[in-house]
Amino acid sequence: MDVKYDLASYVRVLKMASTPSWNEFSQIAKVAGAGIFLIGLMGFVIFAVMTVLPGGI
Questions:
Q1: Model confidence over 1-11: pLDDT tens digits?
Q2: What's 10's DSSP letter?
Q3: Number of structural domains, the chain?
Q4: If we measure between CA atoms, which residue out of 13, 9, 17, 14 comes closest to residue 1?
Q5: What are the tens digits of pLDDT across the range 26-48?
Q6: Which spans are transmembrane here (predicted)?
Q7: Residue numbers of the domain that contains 29
Q8: Mean of the pLDDT values across residues 9-15?
């Protein structure tokens, strides 16, 4: 493991990184929120189906 090479590559990545603009941040937040909502909705639908099916059979 070459520590000097690893540190140099970490520093290079940190120099390239920048703070996102407000528009970029809000777009990422909307997409992440939509993904969380869809996963939760799918879980709720599966729960509702599994709850209703055993009672109907």
A1: 677 788 888 89
A2: H
A3: 1
A4: 9
A5: 999 999 999 999 999 999 999 99
A6: 31-53
A7: 21-57
A8: 89
- Residue 49 contacts residue 57 (beta carbons within 8 Å): no
pTM, two decimal places: 0.64
Whether residue 53 is contained in a domain is answered as yes
* The amino acid at 37: F
What's the rounded Cα separation, in Å, for the pair 13 and 21? 19
The answer as to whether 7 is a domain residue is: no
Residue 30's pLDDT is 98
Cα gap 7→13, rounded to integer Å: 10
Instruction: For residue 53, give the amino acid letter.
Output: L
Distances, alpha carbon 54 to alpha carbons 10, 21, 26, 41, 44, in Å: 55, 50, 43, 21, 16
